[in-house]
## 1
Amino acid sequence: MAKNPAAALKLGQARGAAICAAVVQQLPVAEYTPREVKQAIVGKGNADKLQVQHMTRILLNIQGNLQEDQADALGVALCHAHVFAFNNRLRQAARRF
């Protein structure tokens, strides 16, 4: 991102459009920092991209290589699944009290 400001601007615009489209359709929107995704996938927030790619392949039992963008997207999905499951367990535990 920092290497190409024009690409960063376009990505920000696309991100904003995607969030707006989801909100207009009354869909839930979740956002995670890179550190949160790395923590969920690798177990440490300062993991590098190769570690994220490797663990994503292992967690999803994917044979062959993943491109960085593929690993990033799947990593975010895995992070969301972990957070969603954790929040559900918390809600269930809170109902017992």
## 2
Amino acid sequence: MKGAIPSSDTAESVTAGHPDKLCDAISDSILDACLMVDPNARVAVETMVKGTEGEAIIVLAGEVSLNGEPPNYEQLARQTASSIGYTDSKIGMDATSQEHCQVRTHITTQSQFISQGVDGDLDTQGAGDQGVMFGYACSETEGTPELRGRFFPLSAALAQRLTRRLEVVHDEGIIPWVRPDGKSQVTVQLNESDRSIDRVSTVVIASQHSPDAGPNWPEPDDLTDEERRQYIESEITKHVIEHAIPPSLLGNPQIIVNGTGSFPDPGGPYADAGLTGRKIIVDTYGGGRHGGGAFSGKDPSKVDRSAAYYARWVAKHVVAAGLAEKCEIQVAYAIGISEPVGLRVSTFGTHSEALEGIPDSTISSLIMKHFDWRPAAMISDLELKRPIYRETSSGGHFGRVPTDDGLFPWERLDETRLESLRNHLRD
């Protein structure tokens, strides 16, 4: 190595067209469709995709129990994949073609031995499985106006913005030769003294593209390989990087676009098989502790999903209320039991001066008082029995902006609870 690597923090993200995210989108589209039929539906659906020479396969497997007519799973899978852009085998998959894309469905009903412990009211509905979930929030984004209110790790917030912008560039044809599959990575350099944010030091983009991408596309041009590489890098820099990263943070980072030189068709499922739930760190905070449970394709009775959302919601309240600059919550459940079997808060020594000398266990007690961690209560607080999950399947589940039509409710702050937490500081 040429020298010591500066202290830094790095996170990555992937687009909706990444094979794993394609699977997450299909699984969550099926979940949403089931919840539209029955808000109390029990859903756990996994997806696998793989493209071969001119062919592709989508495999759907899992369990669904609902009161009503099940949706057409194959049609949902095809519609979701084609909406993301997979309509041509030359790109990686043609989900619209019965001839060139098979869909195999292996979906049964939920085991009665699970449902007997999960169904119930506020007091009796137990957790859908055992497991450990984590929620996290921090103040890193709060110094940047464009990111304020997210209370999220900066590197992860920027990586997410890049892939969401890359999706827009593809969907709206802003760069017409960009394909659905893509990835981003952002490295933020830290000050050695206090590990505060110094600058964005490296931005990495991988973007699938047409083999003959160029200024005359779809007409041919006479670019050399190096000229084409430089052209692709300049367009991605202009329309993605400079658009997604706030100018106050961009500075003069190292920019790497398609580090191997090119990323031409076919990509997506042809280049790499996809599976539901294989991007759990991308889905959450870009690094750190994780209980291991994936989100997509699971209804909110599964605490892998609902408790992770709730823990994020609560951690965000702790930081937004000024109790600490960082907050990580670990919560654990046993299948069929409504109350969590364990809950722990860590503020990593960043709690406010008003709480100086107060152990993190005091904050644990505080959030147990003001937030109800029983599965039915979490589902009710966040209104999770709605078809709001397809939108979460790419671009990150956390650090997003809650919408007026109810998306990302775990990102919306409750002023009453915030004031209750602030009152503890005043007391």
